[in-house]
Write a structure and sequence with these properties.
The protein has helices spanning about 1-25, 25-35, 35-50, 55-65, 70-85, 85-100, 105-120, 125-135, 140-155, 160-170, 175-195, 195-210, 215-225, 230-245, 250-260, 265-280, 285-295, 305-315, 320-325, 335-350; strands spanning about 355, 365. By secondary structure, it is mostly helical. The protein has a two-stranded antiparallel ribbon with strand order 1-2. The chain binds zinc ion (ZN). Zinc ion binds near residues 359, 371, 374, 376 and 379.
């Protein structure tokens, strides 16, 4: 028995070692890998201790003190600090790494990348941007540019964002056309708010040139045309939009109807909206139809306003559709419509016939003395949400 145990004790590490060597097929790399063995070991330790951060940090601090040259330990420690929200300490660890003269280029880039992530997590966006900029030309180049793009978007610096996305696209990381078009749209709106109409028009032209089929630049262009009094141009732009994205009609339905009426195209718009209404029941389309009804003599072969509202309510029992039915004149025979209205009201009311915890906002159909969400006592008022 003792003999067996002895073999097991010797055999296991040997088998482990052989497997480890076999996993590094290149014998030339073996020597280097052997030097890095502690590194790999501690990386594993880092993963193992993931769920025990306090103990891991104690162990790492001790190890770093014993062997201050081990870059890998510094990385593990810095990451742990960042994950715990101790950003100052994470920054110090990574800055310490960057100051070391013996650090290779790859590890230097890695430390720089970690430092940039520390700054993002700490909310120091200017410093994060500067740290990411240092990574140009390194293995983290693309990652750093993506991070800088999202930083620029977060700080609403749309010009930098557009430039960054353009450079990402140029480096072959996929198409950023739609995103860049959004950046130009934001710039156009900003310029418009600042009263610079020429700049607004220019930015919008850039947006449309970047992504000719993207919906937002078309919608903005149509609104601009309508505002400038060019209803025909606005109507044509909406037509272009509906060619590429017919499902967006509810978003622009009232503006579309307005442009159509002003351009003398109400009949054509009626057909378009009615066809869409059959495929995509929507109260916004119903409102657009009401605008168009006022501008065109009602044709005998299309449902009238009351019937359209009832059809919508039947397809989609929402409170808005119920309102539309109540707004249209009801005939005594419309029993089905009344049942649909009742169903819509019941559905809408269910969301309001609940009790809500005053401490955490947890909602439930029944009253609780102890909140199941935050476990507070007596935080549910005795009144339902709709009675508050
Ligand atoms: Zn609660």
């Amino acid at each position: 028995m003792e003999f067996d145990l002895q073999w097991l004790l010797i055999g296991l590490p040997i088998a482990f070692g052989l497997g480890w060597i076999a996993s590094r097929l290149d014998i030339g790399q073996w020597k280097r890998a052997q030097r890095e063995a502690p590194k790999a070991y501690f990386q594993g330790l880092n993963l193992l201790l993931n769920e025990q951060h306090d103990k891991a940090i104690d162990a790492f601090i001790e190890a770093v003190q014993r062997d201050p040259d081990t870059a890998e330990l510094h990385f593990a420690l810095g990451n742990l600090f960042r994950r715990r929200g101790e950003f100052e300490r994470a920054v110090r660890v990574h800055q310490h790494l960057l100051q070391r003269a013996d650090l290779g280029a790859a590890d230097r880039a890695r430390a720089q990348h970690a430092l940039a992530q520390d700054y993002v997590k700490a909310g120091l966006l200017d410093r994060a941007e500067a740290a990411y900029r240092e990574l140009e030309g390194t293995a983290f180049d693309i990652e750093a540019r993506l991070a800088r793009l999202s930083l620029a978007e977060r700080s609403r610096d749309w010009r930098t964002a557009a430039e960054m996305a353009g450079r990402l696209e140029a480096s072959g990381t996929g198409s950023y056309a739609n995103r860049i078009a959004h950046h130009w749209c934001e710039l156009s709106l900003q310029a418009g708010d600042a009263g610079d109409d020429a700049a607004a028009a220019e930015a919008l032209r850039n947006a449309r040139a970047t992504a000719p089929h993207a919906p937002r630049p078309l919608i903005l262009a149509a609104r601009r045309a309508a505002k400038a009094g060019d209803a025909a141009a606005a109507f044509n732009l909406y037509g272009e939009l509906l060619q590429h994205a017919p499902e967006l009609l509810p978003l622009v339905a009232s503006d579309y109807a307005g442009a159509a009426i002003a351009a003398g195209q109400a009949a054509a718009a009626r057909t378009t909206v009615l066809r869409r209404l059959e495929q995509q029941p929507s109260v916004d389309l119903l409102h657009a139809m009401r605008l168009l009804d006022g501008a065109t003599p009602a044709a005998g072969d299309v449902p009238d306003a009351a019937e359209r509202a009832q059809r919508l309510l039947h397809a989609q029992p929402t409170l808005s559709a119920a309102l539309a039915v109540l707004d249209a004149p009801l005939h005594a025979a419309d029993e089905q419509a009344l049942r649909d209205v009742r169903e819509a009201v019941a559905r809408g009311a269910r969301a309001l016939q609940r009790y809500r915890c005053a401490a955490c906002g947890f909602e439930a159909p029944q009253h609780f003395w102890q909140c199941p969400g935050c476990l507070s006592w007596d935080t549910f008022p005795p009144r339902r949400v709709e009675e508050l």
